[in-house]
């Protein structure tokens, strides 16, 4: 147990911050209802002071001896030191993955691979509480999201792909599709373990082996997953986890010994990876940024549309590539919707991510906080009106209040650039044609939402939106059976579902 | 993030004067012009709010608040004066062993027992609520419903829980429902009127929203989910939609209509989830027995047991609480 001693009462300070000004406001409320702090216990997590790389089934030090420290973004306390993999370590990891692919995994019958994946899925379920707390500590997202969204989806991805392992002949990719070989996978910090599941589960189900690099700010659940691989007796080398920052990722992506590169992250880095991979025989899938539009028509179920807009942009502090970061509301209901939206946002509880009642957690890193601040400021400078609820922020840690920018036009930076934070840009439209034109007027094309009670208008709109996923009367719903991916600068390739298998198989 | 009276004012349809002669077409236009309710969305929101954790000191306060909001109810064919008197004693002092436990808000009985209850509760501060208007079906001539109401008020009922004519509502005759509520409201005189929508028979969430607005426009002091005789009764999504209606009406007019879920609320956890809904949907302005009630019978003992467990750390067991 390496729990920080000064964290004996982690919620005491933030509960106050979570409900500033008391519960009663100005209304005649004789009793009111306050929620006492309800922190999930950290005791389920045993952190080691430092972590090594996971190569060939074993934890092993980095050749260069470099380390980075991963912090709890909610209080800036260090959680653990993590090894930084260099070129020699990447060589070892890729070699181990190649041996495992050629010696064991690539030739193993699908039914047997499936059994390993089922075993991993069950261990994830058994350890889900521990993994949820660990994810919240390392990432800053609220425990209710890691507990109710991330971890159930992680287990579901492994279960789903375990089922595919012996049925690949029925995936529509020929009678005997073959694996590619070794996959180099680089994942972001916003859904650390879920993105790992999206990458590793289909790769393993299809007979590939992997070298995965988690994000530098959120490596801990990937390392816990390495332990799970050991617990499941997964053959050494099938999964290798190399931690580090950008240099490690670049070395992994550029390594000539892999057959496939899969990346989820920013469009900027995605471009760099596409350049590095260009001219090689490697297959590439990229899942990049987004600037999703949530279109609210005047006949929408307004109260539920408000819920969807809130979930679309404030789920995971807006650190979601498919976030509904642009609200396109029909002008005729804007004056009705926006006060409802503000009233709803005032109810969001920001504070200690481990508190079960927290809706908005911490921004993942100081660097990301700077970016969010800069773009939010740019919005105000360009003339948008900025609104946030009365929401004192905890003194330590990286925090940004839920923010709504109104009066935004297509020309504003905040309508074009991905903010990747809890900042919603509000635009209006007059007709369905205008809504579609504005929604599509972005270099991205990852997600969109449509809110209407009229089925024909919903389908008319969905047909015209250039986005990889279009939700209607809901938002941010994920399922392992549903393919996910982007149009345009949001990337290419699909993850999840039958389509997602294609990224790891050769037609045969 | 405090209670700044949710302002979605433009949301509310313009209020009709409660006594105006309103055509069925006008009522239909009003009710069908309300924004729809998305079934999946409202259920998801209710489920999300049900995960709120209310513990320790907050739980202790919430339990006392819930006790003070209970309409302690007996609505059986077998009700007798003796049974009602026993219930009234329990309403005034729910836990004879602990005087710090607050009284409940009201005792809810059939109209012929209103006098018995009024005598038993005299001077206690606990109100007599009587169901009326041919409860629970509402299938009786208007004159009978009004006589039912007047008699209950004359016998000491300070609150009348009427049922709407669900048949008329489902037939699209909103005018008939509206007129009946107006007439019963008048027959109530000084008594407060709770209008039971019987949401289990209205079947859709859109209908729940429409019936809520119809009752509010007709002058209801409270809107109430159910008689307790039809399943499903008070579900969280239904209560949530009704809370949205009173919230929006308050934002538009300043009048604060109350909400009473009734039927199926049996455990402390159920009660706390209802209070969380009130807190986060309508706002703390409704966290008051004057604006929120819980219609229940067995709930009270569970609240008392949880209350004791919080203060002593152990369950005393059901035999330590009175059966009434």
Can you describe what's shown?
The complex is a heterodimer of chains A (508) and B (324). Chain A has 508 residues and is of the alpha/beta class. Chain A has 2 domains: 43-288 and 487-506, Aldehyde Dehydrogenase, Chain A, domain 1; 293-472, 3-Layer(aba) Sandwich (Aldehyde Dehydrogenase, Chain A, domain 2), CATH 3.40.309.10. Chain A has helices at 10-18, 87-103, 110-126, 128-139, 143-164, 192-205, 220-231, 246-254, 267-277, 302-314, 331-346, 366-381, 413-416, 432-440, 455-464, 497-501, and strands at 50-51, 53-55, 58-60, 67-72, 77-83, 178-179, 182-186, 209-213, 239-241, 260-264, 283-287, 293-296, 326-330, 385-387, 403-406, 423-429, 447-451, 469-472, 491-492, 505-506. Chain A has a 7-stranded mixed beta sheet with strand order 14-15-16-13-12-17-18, with helices on both faces. A 6-stranded mixed beta sheet of chain A has the order 9-8-7-10-11-19, with helices on both faces. Chain A has a 3-stranded mixed beta sheet with strand order 1-5-4, covered by helices on one side. In chain A, helix 3 packs antiparallel against helix 5 (143-164), helix 5 packs parallel to helix 6 and helix 10 (302-314) packs across helix 11. The longest helix of chain A is centred in the first third of the chain and has 22 residues, at 143-164. The N and C termini of chain A lie far apart (50 Å). The relative contact order of chain A is 0.14. Chain B is α/β, with parallel strands linked by helices. Chain B has one domain: TIM Barrel. Chain B contains 13 helices and 8 strands. Chain B has helices spanning 24-32, 39-49, 56-68, 81-92, 114-121, 142-154, 166-170, 174-188, 199-202, 205-217, 236-253, 268-282, 299-312, and strands spanning 70-73, 106-109, 127-132, 159-163, 192-196, 222-224, 258-260, 294-296. Classes of the chains: A alpha/beta (508), B alpha/beta (324). At the A-B interface, helix 10 and helix 11 of A face helix 2, helix 3 and helix 12 of B.
